[in-house]
Every structure is written in structure tokens, then in C-alpha cells.
Write a structure and sequence with these properties.
Length: about 800
């Protein structure tokens, strides 16, 4: 089935400009009519908690919101930083995008592709893709958009019980969807060619049959595509329920587009560090990688001969005929010494892993694992990712009449037992191109301290800030938290910083918890916005259709905190002296100056006052008195008169404080009787509780010892067995029965839809081989079933012991 993706159609262009510009009114985004309505978020089809996000942003000027009540998509035009730098405005009225078919499932998540032409609607019971440019409707401001259903025969068949765990757009293709399902299969769908059958299928087998200790090690949870860094752009990271992380590399959608410089960089790296190595394993692995690169991107050889550069190149359909991809992992922590624990990443956190986030920050690849207990495990790849194949395990290819590859499927087995753990002190020659999975460098474990939940734990969804990649957001039942990374190993080393490892900073952004026990998250939508001027916002929508717009600071989040160690602490008395001005100067408080009397003759008493000598002496004494006492009195009078208003204010303030203190004392006296009554009541309750405690101590079984560490570990294994393994066993049996039923009921002579299947160098595969594979799968399942039956007996015995 072929679809035309030409966006330059007249009807589509009419739909884009159907809203006249003169009728548009710009208002704050939080006051938009679609958010201020009292409508609910629609009914829930499943009582189980699910991740919900009904908001999407195209990275430019359009915000999309799914209306669960009216079953339509709202397209809101927004302006960032106008008229104020921190404001977010929205256009009224908004466009309504209506699907051209009836959606028979509840939408829980929406996401837009790279160029903004399509958006998928995912739910528990369905997956559809809506193309955003359609034909105008008879209703005003409404567009009818073409909508298709993806993978309906595989995931949403009535006789099938395969659940979709995660759906993501591929970052280097506008037409490819990646889907991880509960049957441990990762599929890539090409929407431009076939929406029923996948283009690529990877059957994940993390452990060998019969060696798994519990089903959590074989139950996938989440996945993420890699970022724009070396082989990361060709990688898929898969998270399993026990916290282990695996890598598939290389995985490339047919027809995806990559930068020429990026592909040339990894091609030259394989030549430099692989083919010239003295280790034959490195030479073999790099030769496979080079042959795959040159076949997938044939322009590498052509342009190398011609000496020309291209801006981008397109991936061609190709797969090695005699090798399948290796499931690299589980990724383990890098360590220094001989006696360090080399446990798989995730052993330090309790519970089950629930979500995964890949983030590229400069030269560092950051992996974040969220656990249902509320912990975030943050790691960085300590080495580069390299492609690894299992030679001798050929894939299954689907080709046309001209032997052009249309699709592929392969079993990806883990080969972790063949490799040793990488140490930090190992030389480069012992790790490059030897097929070792990249180790993890533990950066931090962040405990979000979430409210008390049920046994299923909390659901945590993580997002990366669109402006500052060092910051990520964690959306959970208690609200939204911001986590900022202050240490990046490779980036700090390249920039010349020798800083020690700093812990991330965690800041609560939004709290939706009313108490210690929380209800399901009231947020049904979340998106991060940013503009080219360095401003960042987060937008959240509640179930009651209330829109929250919060501005996030970015410029000072990564600045270090400087502490002046040389400055001495200031005494409190000195501060009071500085703040309180002098009422009277110290000079006046010390009194008048003491001036010695002038030298006089000894016969001064016999001198008459009317004489010349007497008058001269009196004049000298009067002058001294005037200088010392009269002038001092004038100064005292002037300062007292000048500081009078200030003294009045001080006295009034003291009187006011005295009045407040008297009021507080009166209130305390009034409450004293009530406090005495409450104290008496508390004493009575204490006595009652003491009696109840004594009665409880006398009950049988109250003197049992607490569980030991081994017993607690066994109890946690039983909890994991109860929550995961039985469901995994039932889903595996159901999936195998459905496959066998489809195989036995499939028509044999439909020549119009028949495809040629080849395995390795053969041109076809007989049906007997398929039946044999199904029988072998059933035998493997029987082994797992026998192990689970033993564990069921252990559970029953443990329950009997606990009841006794």
C-alpha cells in the first residue's frame, strides 16, 4: 500500500490559511477558551494507571491539544516573547482538526514528527496517525484530516494480547514509527509504504532460554532512540523491568536522511582505530561496520573518489546476509579495583523500572532510568557505542521480484557472557572495536521523595528542556520536578575543567499533592517551550482543562556558587550599632572641655572689682565660662531639638511593640485554659494507647523477630514474581498461540500478495522450518513454565508459613 506525502496540494494550503488574519485575537495562553471550559478529560477505558500527555509542540509556533471529550485536535498558534519577553500569547479562535474516521479508543498520548506534518494518537486499544494538513470542513475553523491506523493486525486484534509499551517517532525520518511491545519485539513501521506490516522487526532475547532467574529480566518497559553523536544516531536503547539497559546498533530506517559529515566521521573512525588495530577481533568488527556503512550509504565510496561533499545522504535498504544484530548488554557500571561490585545497573534501586530517557549534552550521552519507588538513576556512557553483529545467525529478509529489500526480521541475542567488564585503567587498545558494551559511569541517584503509593508504585515520565539540555523534568503523581546536571565527564574534560563530581540540583516546579497519600496525577498534558532569545517555559494542562504556563530561568542555573572564605562574620551588636544612629554625639555626652583657669596674682582677693585689673580678670573668667559652658549648652539644646522627632519615633515604636506584646500575653492567657484541657486529653489518650499497646504485646505472634536481609530479599523477589512473571507468562503463551493460529490459517496460494522470503543465501524457506521454529519456541516456553511452576510452589509454601 502506497501513500502520497506531497504536502504542496491546493486543498492543504487552503486548510492552512482558512482562518482570516483580521479575525485573530491574541490573548495569554492560560486564558484560551479551550482551556477555560469546564469540560472534563474524558472517560478512562482502563483502571490501570497509564502515562498521559495530550500536548505537543512543533518547535515553532503551533501548539496541539487533544480534546478527549469532543474527539478532536486543537491547533493553537502561539507567540513567544511578545509583547513582553516573558509572555506567551495564543490566537483566538484556534483551528480544530477532525479525523476522517471514527476513533474507537481513548487517546493517552500524542506526539508530532520532525517536520510537523503528522501526529500520532496512541492509546491502550489503538494507534492512529493524523496528517495535519487536510481539507476544509463546512464548520468554521475546522479541517478534516486524513487519519490511518497503524499495526492494527499485530497489536489490536481481538485474538491478540500484545500490548504496546512505547511509541516514538524516529529522529531522522518523518515517516517511521518505532514501537516496543510486550512480546519483546521492537518494530519499525514505514508509514509511506505499509501501515499493516512493519519494515523491520527485532526479536529481543536478553538471556538464553532456561537461564533467566525471573521474568523481570525478559520484560521490556521502555526504549529511546539515540542522539546526534557518532554511532548513537544509529542506536536504540531498550530498558527492561529489572533496570537493565541494552543497545541495538545499527538500526537505520530505510530512506532516513543523515548529515554527510556525521557519517564520514564514523567511517574514518572505523578505518583509523579498527582496520589498523593489531587485534584480529577489532579488525573483523570494524570490517563488518565499514561494509555495512558503504552498502547503506553508497555515496561514501563514490564521493570519496570524486572528492565532493554532500549536505546529507539517504540510507539505502541493506542488511548483512549472514549476521544479525547483537543485543549489547546489560550495560554495567565501570569500576576501578578488583573487588568492586560489578552488578548490573539498577541493583541499587528497589522496585521495578518504569521509564527511560536518553539525553545528549555536548559530548556526553546521559541515560536516566526511573523506578516506581520514586528514584531516578542517572548514568553517563563511559565509552563510545560501536556496532556488534552475531555472525552465523542470518536474518530473514523480504524482497521483491528484483531482489530489493522490502523488510527484515532478526533475532537479537545477548552475548554479554563473552566479554569481561571494562575498567577505567585499561588502555585504549583493549576496548576499541572489541565488541564490548559501553560501560556506565554513575553520576547520581536522585530520590524524588514521592507520596505514598500502592503496591504498583508511581509512574514517572521524563522530558528534556528544549533550551538547556542539562535540565530535565520529571512528571509524576506529586507534580513536576526539575533536575539540573552540574557535572558532565567528557564535556568537563574537553573544556579543561578539573571540577570534582557535583551532585545534580533538584527543584520542585509544581506540586499537585494534597497530603502524604496522593491520587493519580491531575496533569494530562506537559510540554517545554523555548525561543531564540534564551527564554524557556513549561506548559501543563490539568484534567479539569486548566492551563498552567510557568517561566523557567536558564541563565543562572549552571553558575557555580562562590563563597567568600576570607570574610569574617559580623557581630550582631556591631550590626545594631551600625543600623541605629547616635541620638546625642559622644562629644556632648563626655561633657564640656576642662580648661585651666588663667594665671593670676596671689593678691587677687584684695583687688577691687571696679579697678582696671579687676575688670580684666573678670573679663577673662567670663570669656572662659562662655566658651566652655554656654557654647556647650547651646550645642546640647540644638542636638536635643534636632533629634526630638527621632526620639519620638523611637518612643512610639517602643509603645507599639509593648502593646503588641501585651496583646500576645492576653491571648496566651486566654488559651492557657484550652491548652490545659488539651494536655489533660493528651495524657488520657496516652494512657489509652499505652493500654492498647500492652494488649497488643500480649497477642500471639507479637514476639516474632523482624525479617532478616535474606528474607527481605526473598520477599521482594516474591513481589516481583506476583506483579510481573505471571502476566509475562500469560502474554507469552497467548502470543505464541496467536502466531500458531495465524500460521495454520494463512492461505497458501495467494499469489497476488505472496512475497519471496530468503534466509542467508537461500531464495526461499519451507514451511517445515517455520513449524520447527514454533516447536522450538514452545519447548523454550515449557522450560520457562516449569521454572515458574517451581516458583509458584515456593510462593505457596511461603504464604502458608506466613499464615501460620
Amino acid at each position: 500500500m502506497k501513500y502520497n506525502f506531497d504536502l504542496h496540494v491546493t486543498k492543504m494550503e487552503q486548510g492552512r490559511s482558512s482562518t482570516p488574519k483580521d479575525e485573530v485575537e491574541w490573548i495569554p495562553l492560560g486564558d484560551h477558551p479551550i482551556f477555560t471550559s469546564a469540560a472534563g478529560a474524558g472517560p478512562e477505558s482502563s483502571p490501570a494507571p497509564v502515562t498521559r500527555n495530550l500536548l505537543a509542540w512543533d518547535g515553532a509556533s503551533r501548539l496541539y491539544f487533544w480534546d478527549s471529550e469532543n474527539l478532536c485536535l486543537h491547533r493553537i498558534s502561539i507567540r513567544l516573547g511578545e509583547p513582553e519577553p516573558t509572555s506567551v500569547l495564543a490566537a483566538v479562535p484556534s483551528m480544530v482538526l477532525q479525523a476522517d474516521l471514527q476513533l474507537d479508543f481513548v487517546v493517552h498520548k500524542i506526539s508530532i514528527n520532525r517536520n510537523g506534518s503528522a501526529l500520532f494518537l496512541a492509546g491502550t486499544d489503538g494507534l492512529s496517525v493524523m496528517y495535519l494538513y487536510g481539507r476544509a470542513s463546512s464548520k468554521q475553523n475546522t479541517i478534516i484530516c486524513r487519519t490511518i491506523s497503524v499495526g492494527s493486525k499485530i497489536y489490536f486484534n481481538s485474538s491478540n494480547f500484545i500490548r504496546v509499551l512505547q511509541v516514538l517517532w524516529h529522529p531522522y525520518s518523518d515517516n517511521h514509527l518505532g514501537i516496543l511491545s510486550s512480546d519483546s519485539v521492537f518494530r519499525l513501521f514505514d508509514l509511506s509504504s505499509d501501515i499493516i506490516q512493519p519494515e523491520q522487526e527485532y526479536y529481543l532475547q536478553p538471556v538464553e532460554p532456561g537461564r533467566c532467574k525471573n521474568a523481570t529480566s525478559i520484560c521490556p518497559v521502555d526504549f529511546s532512540f539515540g542522539g546526534d553523536h557518532l554511532w548513537d544516531r544509529f542506536s536504540v536503547f531498550v530498558l527492561f523491568s529489572d533496570g537493565s539497559v541494552y543497545i541495538l546498533c545499527p538500526v537505520v530506517p530505510f530512506g532516513s536522511i543523515y548529515k554527510w559529515e556525521s557519517v564520514m566521521e564514523i567511517h574514518s573512525d572505523a578505518h583509523t582505530f579498527g582496520l589498523k588495530s593489531a587485534n584480529p577481533i577489532a579488525v573483523s568488527n570494524s570490517s563488518l561496520a565499514i561494509s555495512w556503512l558503504e552498502a547503506t550509504f553508497p555515496e561514501l565510496v563514490q564521493q570519496a573518489l570524486e572528492g565532493a561533499d554532500l549536505p546529507s545522504i539517504r540510507a539505502r535498504p541493506y542488511a548483512l546476509f549472514d549476521a544479525s544484530l547483537s543485543l549489547q548488554g546489560p550495560l554495567k557500571k565501570v569500576y576501578h579495583g578488583e573487588n568492586e561490585d560489578v552488578a548490573v545497573c539498577g541493583a541499587e534501586c528497589g522496585g521495578c523500572a518504569v521509564s527511560f530517557l536518553y539525553n545528549i549534552v555536548s559530548k556526553d550521552s546521559i541515560l536516566v532510568t526511573a523506578w516506581n519507588g520514586g528514584q531516578l538513576q542517572i548514568d553517563a556512557l563511559a565509552d563510545e557505542i560501536q556496532p556488534v553483529w552475531n555472525v552465523g545467525s542470518p536474518p530473514r529478509l523480504c524482497v521483491d521480484s528484483c531482489d530489493h529489500i522490502l523488510g527484515l526480521a532478526m533475532i537479537c541475542e545477548s552475548t554479554c557472557s563473552n566479554y569481561s567488564i571494562v575498567k577505567l585503567d585499561q588502555p585504549l587498545d583493549n576496548t576499541v572495536w572489541l565488541g564490548h558494551p559501553p560501560p556506565l559511569l554513575r553520576l547520581a541517584i536522585v530520590d524524588l521523595a514521592l507520596p505514598i503509593k500502592s503496591e504498583s508504585g508511581s509512574i514517572i515520565t521524563m522530558f528534556v528542556d528544549t533550551l538547556m539540555p542539562e535540565r530535565m523534568y520529571a512528571l509524576h503523581d506529586g507534580g513536576i520536578d526539575s533536575i539540573v546536571l552540574h557535572f558532565l565527564p567528557f564535556t568537563s574534560q574537553i573544556s579543561g575543567k578539573n571540577d570534582t563530581m557535583k551532585t545534580p540540583s533538584v527543584h520542585p516546579v509544581l506540586s499537585t499533592c494534597q497530603g502524604e497519600v496522593s491520587s493519580p496525577s491531575p496533569l494530562c498534558g506537559f510540554v517545554s517551550l523555548s525561543d531564540s532569545f534564551g527564554y524557556s517555559w513549561i506548559v501543563g494542562v490539568t484534567i479539569s482543562r486548566e492551563c498552567l504556563v510557568l517561566e523557567m530561568k536558564t541563565w543562572d542555573m549552571l553558575l557555580p556558587i562562590h563563597v567568600d572564605k576570607d570574610s569574617k562574620p559580623t557581630d550582631l551588636d556591631e550590626l545594631k550599632e551600625r543600623e541605629m544612629p547616635d541620638i546625642i554625639s559622644k562629644e556632648l555626652l563626655s561633657g564640656p572641655k576642662v580648661v585651666l583657669a588663667p594665671h593670676t596674682s596671689p593678691n587677687l582677693r584684695s583687688v577691687s572689682a571696679d579697678s582696671i585689673e579687676g575688670r580684666s580678670t573678670l573679663h577673662q573668667y567670663f570669656k572662659l565660662f562662655h566658651e566652655n559652658y554656654v557654647e556647650y549648652a547651646h550645642k546640647v539644646y540644638f542636638e536635643i531639638k534636632h533629634h526630638g522627632p527621632h526620639l519620638k519615633r523611637i518612643i512610639d515604636d517602643q509603645h507599639a511593640r509593648l502593646g503588641v506584646a501585651q496583646q500576645k500575653l492576653s491571648r496566651v492567657e486566654e488559651k492557657q485554659s484550652k491548652l490545659e484541657v488539651r494536655i489533660d486529653h493528651a495524657i488520657q489518650q496516652h494512657g489509652i494507647l499505652k493500654e492498647r499497646l500492652q494488649r497488643l504485646r500480649n497477642l500471639p505472634g507479637a514476639h516474632k523477630k523482624p525479617l532478616s536481609r535474606a528474607e527481605r530479599e526473598f520477599k521482594s523477589e516474591l513481589d516481583q514474581f506476583r506483579g510481573v512473571e505471571l502476566d509475562a507468562l500469560r502474554s507469552s503463551i497467548t502470543a505464541l498461540n496467536a502466531r500458531l493460529r495465524r500460521h495454520t490459517q494463512s492461505p497458501k496460494g495467494n499469489a497476488s500478495k505472496q512475497r519471496v522470503l530468503i534466509t542467508g543465501k537461500n531464495n526461499y524457506v519451507q514451511q517445515d522450518s517455520q513449524v520447527f521454529q514454533l516447536k522450538s519456541s514452545l519447548e523454550k516456553l515449557s522450560l520457562v513454565n516449569s521454572e515458574n511452576s517451581k516458583k509458584v510452589k515456593l510462593v505457596e509454601s511461603a504464604l502458608k508459613d506466613s499464615s501460620v
